[in-house]
Write a structure and sequence with these properties.
By secondary structure, the chain is mostly helical. Among the domains are: about 1-85; about 180-254, Orthogonal Bundle (Arc Repressor Mutant, subunit A), CATH 1.10.10.10. Helix content is about 85%, strand content about 5%. It has six helices and three strands. It has helices at about 1-45, 50-75, 90-190, 195-205, 205-220, 240-254, and strands spanning about 195, 230, 235. It has a three-stranded antiparallel beta sheet with strand order 1-3-2. A hairpin with a 2-residue loop joins strand 2 (about 230) and strand 3 (about 235). The longest helix is centred in the middle third of the chain and has 103 residues, at about 90-190. The N and C termini lie far apart (about 210 Å). About 5% of the residues are buried. This is DDRGK domain-containing protein 1. It comes from Circinella minor. Keywords: Membrane, Transmembrane, Transmembrane helix. Pfam families: DDRGK.
Length: about 250
């Protein structure tokens, strides 16, 4: 019984040690796998899709794989590190230039986008001003049309009013002529020779009205067709007057 207990006391620590070693190995493999994958992914992102860079990436991957394999075989160094070969000076400069070119192209693309946006803003502003100018011209044209139309209506209204006034005045004159032309005719026949002032005093009309009636008589009445005007002086002459004058001249001539 004592021997069995001694065996158990010896075997239990040994079993625990073996389990601990196996657990550590499993953890080490897991960490190595994660670290290697992370480094490879970083290199792929840094190098891009270029063919020469892809070849470099493959070398790095192979080197990383060999490093992991050597670590597994030799058990030396850190259990979680993957050693990657350093990039050469020329390769580093090439990658630096590539990054600079990428930044330059990105900057130029940004500038083009800015210019395109500015051009769109200017074009929109130009269209807006053009539309505003077209609206302003249309409004101005409409305003002028309305002013012209209003002026034409006003002129037409004034013309009609003037024609009505003239027609009314003509009717008034015609009525007074029909009514008082006989008085003017009798006065002129009686005076034979008179001025407009004398005619107005003898007929009872104003000088202007007496003159207008007398002019109308000369234009419409056959009796006054031989009458004579000399400024404001009027001489009523008939055919008998011309006959008497001819006879007088003949007698005096003999």
């Amino acid at each position: 019984m004592v021997n069995n207990i001694d065996v158990l006391v010896i075997m239990i620590p040994i079993a625990l040690c073996i389990l601990g070693i196996l657990l550590l190995l499993e953890i080490r493999e897991s960490l190595q796998s994660d670290s290697g994958a992370g480094n490879i992914t970083s290199l792929q992102q840094a190098l891009g899709d270029n063919d020469s860079d892809s070849e470099l990436l493959e070398n790095y991957v192979e080197e990383a794989a060999r490093t992991v394999e050597e670590d597994d075989n030799n058990g030396e160094g850190s259990s979680t590190a993957v050693h990657v070969k350093k990039i050469g000076k020329k390769k580093g400069e090439k990658l630096k230039r590539k990054e600079q070119m990428r930044q330059y192209h990105e900057y130029m693309n940004h500038q083009r986008d800015l210019r395109r946006a500015q051009d769109e803003v200017l074009e929109e502003e130009f269209r807006r001003k053009k539309d505003e100018e077209a609206i302003r011209r249309a409004d101005e044209s409409e305003r002028r049309r309305k002013v012209k139309e209003k002026k034409a209506k006003q002129e037409e209204k004034e013309r009609v009013k003037r024609e009505k006034a003239e027609e009314k005045e003509a009717k008034k004159k015609r009525s007074r002529f029909d009514k008082y032309s006989g008085r003017i005719a009798d006065t002129v026949k009686r005076l034979k020779l008179c001025t407009m002032e004398t005619l107005a005093k003898n007929s009872g009309f104003s000088q202007e009205e007496a003159t207008n009636i007398l002019k109308e008589l000369c234009a419409t009445s056959p009796e006054f067709r031989l009458s004579l005007w000399s400024g404001s002086t009027f001489m009523f002459v008939t055919e008998d007057d011309y006959a008497n004058l001819s006879a007088y001249l003949e007698n005096n001539g003999k």
